Amino acid sequence: MSSVKVVSPEIAGASLHVSLPWYTHLYTIPFLSLYPVLAYAYYVKYDDWLQSEEWTFLACVSLGLGHALSFLFTKWNTGAKAWITTRKVSILR
Question: Which UniProt keywords apply (predicted)?
Answer without folding.
Answer: Membrane, Transmembrane, Transmembrane helix
